[in-house]
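Structure tokens please, single chain.
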Amino acid sequence: MSKLVEFFIAPDDVVAALVLRGGPGRVLESVSCGNFDPEEAVIEWESLFTGRSFEELVDADEPRIVAGQDDDGSVVFAFSDPLVSALGAADEPRLGEVAGLWSQLRDEDGEALDVDVPGEILGDLARLARAAEKQGSGVHCWVA
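Here you go.
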């Protein structure tokens, strides 16, 4: 499951969709990750932060695809406003709690993550969410 994953800030879905072919690069503030399913992770994070069930979020078409195909090529999707708000408001203890719970979910699915990785990813995303909120922008993800 080798994937390129970049979470980034964009002012709207139209600008976010423009990165479909090559990623956000240095033009947009971003955080790079890899080797996990970011669409599933975003649903899990939102479920853990907000208490909404995984199934409820899937039924609500979260995360929202803004460009590309989610089956066979690059895709760009948007974080929901509640997830951006939850990430932006999370303090270190809350980020650590959610990181631990997410790590447990991944372990249960046979996808062990290095011990520090969940906390690092969520810490980076919290910083990105805070910056996005200050700019009046959204958080998006590009996967290739």
